[in-house]
Fold this protein.
Amino acid sequence: MATLSLHGVRKSFNNTAVLHGIDLEVADGELVVIVGASGCGKSTLLRIVAGLETPSDGQVVINGRDVTGLEPADRDIAMVFQNYALYPHMSVFGNMAYGLKIRGLPRAEIDRRVRDAAGILGIEPLLDRKPKQLSGGQRQRVAMGRAIVREPALFLFDEPLSNLDAKLRVQMRAEIRRLQRRLGVTSLFVTHDQVEAMTLGDRLVVMNAGRPAQVAPPMEIFARPADTYVAGFIGSPSMNFIPAALDQGNASARLADGTLVPFPEGHRPGSAGQPITLGVRPEHLLPGEGEGEGAIPLAVELIEPLGSETVVHGRAPGGLAITARLPGTFSGSVLPVRLPGAHLHVFDAETGRRLDP
Amino acid sequence: MQKKVFFRGRLLPLVLLAPQLAVTVVFFFWPAGQAILQSTMREDAFGFSREFVGLENFREVLEDPAWVNAALNSFVFSALVAGLALGLALFLAVQADKSLRGATVYRSLLIWPYAVAPAVAAVLWLFLFQPQVGLIGRGLNAIGIAWDYRLNGGQAMTLIVIAAAWKQLAYNFIFFLAGLQSIPASVLEAAAIDGARPTRRFWTVIFPLLSPTTFFLLVVNLTYAFFETFGIIHALTGGGPAKATETLIYKVYVDGVENLNLGQSSAQSVILMIIVIALTAIQFRAVEKKVHY
């Protein structure tokens, strides 16, 4: 049981700054997901916590102990790698027991712990096999088992599900969540997959170019993204962004064609006529009946039927690409949509920051 | 992707194969056949008469204390060369595998000795260890160690072991380095997180994963030390002093070329042939079964 704190962690490789000062507090038993596109520095951050990379600046504190200068071995952590990194020459039992043998635990204790962990993960029949005789999902479980038996203060996951096929990924995702809850081990989980991030995390850190763009619980990130990057990254299909300007004493947005969209939540800060970006999630667009006031007639370019719903990719008269997610099925060449009042996200066009009433 | 090429006639493929086949026949099969034939003959030194003696030559060779001495020398020499060349190469490869500054230069330099001809390599070592003109040889005598490999059998053996191992070092180094680089970094990181210090990581993870490479190299090195070190021994010690560095391959030369005892020399060649066939068989087995993790 432990907490993790990062204070101003920076990292540069040959004058290229990868992390620009990360501060993070992870509470005891919490699962924090670091999510971001590739190259945003999320894996580097995890490796710094693991001790596999040295930060250029800043501190890593585990359970109140500054471990910045310590070897990975002295940090009381366990890590699950993307390619599992099992020891190919050892049996499953050997893989799981390795860390315990190094710690000099008595044989009986090692045996008990390995069998307990194998029981939890349902891999007891595999204990005598070599990694190459296992399927991807089984290897994944062994990698998890190797982390569990150590009973570490901190679990680190480096995209552990990305080598699995889609179905298995969903299954293992749920298993990891259950397991983490059950064991109550503080965890840091890195992924590029926003669905994984949303479903797993108690809190998310959305990384953008070496900076945390937003740190918050998943639903808050979804409901109130801090900037256009987060808004576009979280949610599938991505949020629509429509350029507009503040109007009517900052109580409405004026679109390019002159349509006024009032903000039911109130005034936004800013000067009159300031350019803003309106964000609307595809599922929040209101499919209009006919060509009413304020409806945008979308020229349909692509229809993706998903069964229970349909994603329609279209273009507004100005050429702006807009995606709508409709319940049921859809066919036709024009889809008139209206902007909802309630689910509008307003961002400063220049900085991309969210503008709240 | 393998592409198969079909030739229309019979002639062209035969012509294309002919040079290699000719070399193999003239330089391998013919001498080998001659050796087997001669090993059953007794011939006078001037070649005026020969008679068939069956396996008599083999019996005499195997009973000859000089041959047993040469066999013993061969085993000691091969074991030492293989041990030294493998151990040192592994150590250097581990060092080169670390991301050091100038690692590429270091790697290239280590590969050079392999390009040096055995006799030339021997001369290089001669210049170092010769008691009167050699740098190290003089140095050793200067600090009071009576160094003269021409008088002391143990010193002579040491010298040819060093020279032969140095020659083989580069080859081993390349294979070990390739083997080390094929070990995924994440496996070593996992071991580090599991709490293994570098030394322990080496013995419990790196070394076992290198074992197929090590085994392959062990066979190659033994073959090398047994059969390909004639040049080094000939140039450095000439089998002496008092046959202290006479190995099996060197004795074949001494008995056949110097003493003109062709029958017994051939019998020894045939014995060596059997050893090399056995070693090669083991090696092929190893390559086939090579444990791929």
